[in-house]
Amino acid sequence: MSLEERYLENEYYTEAEHGEFDLFDLGDFELARGRTIRDCKLAYKTVGTLNQSKDNAIVFPHMYSGTHRDMEMYVGEDMAIDPTEYFVIMPDQLGNGLSSSPHNTPPHEGGMGNFPEVMIEDDIRAQHRLVTEEFGIEELELVLGWSMGAQQTYEWAVRFPEMVKRAAPIAGTAKVTPHDQLFIDAHMEAIRSDPAWNDGFYTDPHAVVTGLQRHAQIWSVMGLCTQFYHYDERAWERAGFASVEDMLANFWEDWFLRMDPNNLLTMAHKWRHGDVSRNADGDLEEALGRIEAKTFVMPFEEDMFFPVSDCAHEESMIPDSELRPIPSLWGHFTMFGVFEEDKQAIDDHIGELLETPA
Amino acid sequence: MSLEERYLENEYYTEAEHGEFDLFDLGDFELARGRTIRDCKLAYKTVGTLNQSKDNAIVFPHMYSGTHRDMEMYVGEDMAIDPTEYFVIMPDQLGNGLSSSPHNTPPHEGGMGNFPEVMIEDDIRAQHRLVTEEFGIEELELVLGWSMGAQQTYEWAVRFPEMVKRAAPIAGTAKVTPHDQLFIDAHMEAIRSDPAWNDGFYTDPHAVVTGLQRHAQIWSVMGLCTQFYHYDERAWERAGFASVEDMLANFWEDWFLRMDPNNLLTMAHKWRHGDVSRNADGDLEEALGRIEAKTFVMPFEEDMFFPVSDCAHEESMIPDSELRPIPSLWGHFTMFGVFEEDKQAIDDHIGELLETPA
Questions:
Q1: N or C: fewer beta carbons within 10 Å in chain B?
Q2: Are residues A281 and A232 both part of a single domain?
């Protein structure tokens, strides 16, 4: 089946938008919560070359609402993740619109409003198969990710401790917090309360526009921080926006409105239930204690989802770890690297971690 | 006209719910933005006795979604605001449901969806008339308030500097921040997007229940702080709730769902446009520089609306002022005094301010 056939419905989820990428065939993939995705595809992109001894691989999953494309800015010859040195695998989440997802699966085959519950551990089981079966890799130099990418990083490090030499969970937690769940419920409800959503069975994803707008609005409140929006600071101008309203339209709505509502809901549900302690019968300390990776826990100061204190709490349970907070007015979205110094700070920490023996 | 006739529509806005209170007749009250409320009533409650020299009065306005009742917990014989010593006036905001409001004004008289734009300065002009015309008071020992009450406190201190001897703006700002505006837009949109709201012309306020539920949900995300909701902290249990879901239903929804949607929107609009710099052609430093009151600026640490840094920024422009941050997991809702030590800390600062010569 060609990519064009799989991604017919929404021009956002195409190679025209995201560049070339690959699909790994998972066959009929059984999910943690019981259902199976038939003929399941895991999308991914690689950069660099796997060396002979297969010991130069990095896995770099992405955040909520993202794809592999959004991580590419942290891969480059002048950066810590240098593709002349490393083989970088950027997997796409199940449900993100490039892998098997609600919008590219017909309703009668379990798509759209029928799409099954997917969990973070399903992503990591799928990625593990890609890494081992497709590439024959037994050890990873580094697993890193931001936000839901951090959830995936933790799941990798807890589930396959002997494989992960280094880990960098950035602005995310190993176990979702009740406050995150409240936030996720609010932005999911913003979409689901739009009558056009119709329990996930819309004929045109762009018809759910008011739901997606409310979703973007809630993200604008929580995604950065109060200080970013201070009228003296006017940080939005440095970011290239004439006003807060301009930023709402041309940053937040521009980001979300092209996406498929069910895809977003599938990812949000995964986020809402992310918890590595399920690997140890609910004992978080036991689960995090299994991590063998040299770990840099990298929260963003002023992050309204994942305050430094929540990340420090988890870091204290990881044997060989350091807390590396990064200051920025961009709050949770520091990772977007809109301010050059933020991107540089993140890259510096990654570089230091890669140079640390593990 | 009897209270019963004025407050027919919603049992929440009755003396059965709020106890006895008074109405001050403002006549036809012209608003800052141009329209007039005919036969306008300002509700208020007083506690204590005005002394002969009329120099023992305190004005204590309330927050968004509140009434005078919500401030009464800070007035008592064992507290700083002791009614055996002070005459305490607790005015109700225009639009709060006890004063003239959308829900108690028929549509053809400018009520419901036709209710005019009201501004913080309208509240303060109305309260000034109450204080001077009804009671003949020329000087106030203290003006204080929380959140929108802080906005009103600032407006009092800037507009009538010679009258206000002491001021305590608690967890609120003199000039609304763009981040607050984003938050206000999100929770107003939660109500307005409910089809039952019908541009403000519903026949039953309780029919707008899903809009009010979404509104409550957004407040649950921003009203406290992430740390409150930490799964190890389980602060909700100390607050008397079995779970976060229980707290959403029996704290947040219990608070908002009885209220009138248009009343909430009228108050939210006021909040969104609060800015004392309008008294000085947009120059905030000039406006705050006019304050003669001895001022304690009292932000709550972990407040997701009004971080200490925003409040400190304004405090630095007030001549005779001190910054008095109060730590609490309750974030913006520290003022609810659910944890006894929070209430005590607030009362201690108020007591110290009242004892300071001014």
A1: N
A2: no
